[in-house]
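Translate structure to sequence.
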């Protein structure tokens, strides 16, 4: 990377990626870990720059919550005070909606607390001195070895040394790999990837270590190596045995906020379709009052949902369907039995399903998304088809990052 020294720059705003933005005669440059109004000397590389000296600081600047901030690339905005940070994050959603011509009520950002992320995906690498375990430096493959984390639950951070012991046994030589840890009601669920083929000796050693340390499970590339306790998470009344690597909402607090918004909008709907349902985050709560048809392409997630339902009494009927909704969205005729639809797709959104839903007669829709841009696109499709967006609520599930969750509620005009 070649850099060139520059004179002073003034940060004018925070961009969608969480970096400070400065306007120069030849265009904008992006400067991480800065705030609006700050003046800095920087070293520039094309449209990015690094602060060499901060000359004037913003009154909105605060001390970061973690000693690794600015080294570790996990957080972008710990240095910004809560109020302006939350206004900026809400504006990410407002701006995306306006870009698609959607003018609707956007609620204040629902705040989430530090140290509540229940899953961490660590970057790891074995060295002569031990196992590096942490997160990659900002825009780099360098692993920052961490001793704390201000966003992850303490139950995971307290086990960093134990995770390094697992890493030492599973590491593919000196090559980097991933080790994810998820907090469940049964203990930590560990999932490794990028470790190559494991030998029988490695498997025996890992089994003994996992048993000794009291972890619930260890899997590698989706294959269970050892499972002393089946990892369980309750969704409402239903205990679900979560499969390795399955999608979960990042924090339990954000999940509860989303569920509350979904249930409030559904009201007394008798039959609901939950699309991209995963392991049942919404479906299993909805089933306490409404019949639910849960649709998902991940066979393991769907099987876990179904298994959980079979062990709980008092729910309304829950049916499941494995289906790739990107290739085969539910058609208007198939949607006729439902009073309401909930969809929570991956970041790419649900464009194909939104196009069919727009032609349907479904009375109420709830769209949940971790990407305001694709959410706005999908909402615009539904609006064109005769729906009205009643409210959008942003949720700060990804604290101190540029990512934001949102729940949009719609009704058929």
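Result:
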């Amino acid at each position: 990377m070649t850099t060139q020294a520059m004179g002073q720059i003034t940060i004018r705003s925070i961009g969608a990626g969480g970096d400070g933005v400065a306007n120069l005669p030849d265009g904008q440059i992006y400067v991480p870990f800065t705030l609006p109004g700050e003046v800095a000397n920087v070293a520039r590389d094309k449209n990015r720059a690094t602060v060499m000296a901060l000359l004037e600081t913003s009154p909105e600047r605060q001390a970061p919550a973690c000693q690794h901030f600015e080294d570790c690339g996990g957080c972008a905005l710990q240095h910004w005070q809560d109020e302006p940070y939350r206004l900026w994050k809400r504006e990410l959603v407002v701006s995306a909606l306006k870009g698609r011509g959607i003018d609707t009520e956007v609620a204040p950002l629902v705040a989430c607390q530090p140290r509540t992320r229940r899953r961490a995906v660590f970057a790891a690498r074995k060295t002569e001195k031990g196992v590096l375990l942490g997160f990659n430096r900002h825009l780099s493959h360098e692993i920052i070895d961490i001793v704390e984390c201000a966003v992850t639950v303490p139950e995971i951070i307290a086990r960093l040394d134990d995770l390094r012991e697992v890493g030492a046994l599973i590491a593919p030589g000196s090559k980097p790999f991933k080790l994810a840890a998820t907090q469940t009601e049964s203990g930590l669920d560990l999932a490794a990837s990028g470790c190559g083929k494991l030998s029988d000796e490695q498997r025996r050693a890992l089994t003994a270590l996992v048993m000794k340390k009291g972890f619930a499970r260890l899997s590698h590339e989706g294959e269970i190596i050892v499972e002393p306790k089946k990892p369980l998470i309750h969704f409402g009344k239903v205990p679900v045995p979560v499969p390795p690597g399955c999608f979960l909402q990042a924090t339990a607090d954000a999940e509860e906020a989303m569920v509350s918004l979904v249930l409030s909008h559904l009201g007394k709907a008798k039959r609901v379709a939950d699309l991209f349902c995963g392991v049942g985050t919404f479906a299993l709560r909805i089933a306490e009052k409404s019949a639910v048809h849960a649709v998902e392409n991940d066979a393991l997630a769907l099987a876990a949902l179904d298994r959980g339902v079979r062990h709980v009494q008092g729910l309304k009927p829950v049916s499941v369907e494995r289906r790739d909704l990107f290739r085969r969205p539910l058609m208007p005729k198939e949607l006729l039995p439902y009073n309401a639809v909930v969809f929570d797709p991956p970041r790419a959104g649900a464009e194909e399903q939104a196009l069919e839903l727009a032609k349907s007669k479904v009375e109420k829709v709830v769209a949940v998304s971790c990407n305001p841009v694709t959410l706005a696109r999908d909402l615009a499709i539904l609006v064109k088809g005769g729906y009205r967006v009643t409210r959008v609520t942003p949720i700060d599930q990804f604290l101190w990052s540029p990512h934001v969750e949102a729940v949009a509620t719609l009704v058929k005009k």
